[in-house]
Amino acid sequence: MNRKSAIGIFDSGLGGLTVMSAVTKLMPKENIIYFGDTAHVPYGSKSKKVVTDFSLGISKFLVKHNVKIIVVACNTASAFSLDILKNNIKVPVIGVIRAGSVMAVKKTKNKKIGIIGTEGTIKSKAYIKEIKKYDKSIQTFSQACPLFVPLVEEGWFDKKITKDIIKEYLVNTVNKKIDTIILGCTHYPLLKKSIRQVIGEHINIVDSAVAVAYEVKKLLHEQNIENNSGKGKYIFYVSDCPEKFKKLGSNFFPQKIKNVKKVEIDK
Ligand code: DGL
């Protein structure tokens, strides 16, 4: 393992490309191996045990490919499995929950934070636990938004029906007078514009994808393993349907997605 070794990023499918996008924007020289578990998506409605087994298998695969760090782009996997991954994987593992929480704690002035995510992420209370580590007096208001992922996968980012659904999910949370909301799911940054229109300008929107990219940069710098020459190369692995990944991936990642390989992961 050295500076040139890749950053490993994994997700249940396509959504983690929003994290990869933020990472490549901030660190264009880094090589990246991305794994999308397209055979098992969605993770958001699955149990902790199942998501953890998938996450461990993928992390071991990435370590075999000599990655220098693993970024768990999936919020559900971060919420359910981060500690287990940290204890079982020999490279540093970073999840999205801490970075998003820290950013939200910094932004809130009235100490009322809304959290949205998959059923799994919300049920785990992972964001709440993290936020309370920094400030116990912050009030949190959580809402699972299970229809957001399929809307994004369908490319329905700003249709009327999408905004109606956003309104339906968020009205109660917004009524609690939150001043900050965490987009606690890989897919939600693609709904940011519509969410902004529904909730108004006065609420800070925290994008965990951007927050985690800064955390990765800091860690690479601290450990002196940043790649500082050349342009990063990207390899994509999926567990099913590489063609579909290539096609839909352009909604999530601004560069052309080439080099998608299908692999099977041992449990
Ligand atoms: N990647 C998941 C997350 O961020 C969303 C999609 C899924 O349910 O697998 O929680």
Overview of this structure, please?
- The chain has helices at residues 17-26, 48-64, 75-88, 96-107, 119-124, 126-134, 148-153, 160-175, 192-199, 208-222, 242-249; strands spanning 7-11, 32-36, 69-72, 93-95, 112-117, 139-144, 180-184, 204-207, 234-238, 260-262.
- It is α/β, with parallel strands linked by helices and 267 residues long.
- The protein has 2 domains: 7-95 and 210-262, Rossmann fold; 97-208, Rossmann fold (3-Layer(aba) Sandwich).
- A 6-stranded parallel β-sheet has the order 4-3-1-2-9-10, with helices on both faces. A 4-stranded parallel β-sheet has the order 6-5-7-8, sandwiched between helices.
- α1 links the parallel β1 (7-11) and β2.
- The longest helix is centred in the N-terminal third of the chain and has 17 residues, at 48-64.
- The model has no long low-confidence stretch (mean pLDDT 96).
- The structure holds D-glutamic acid.
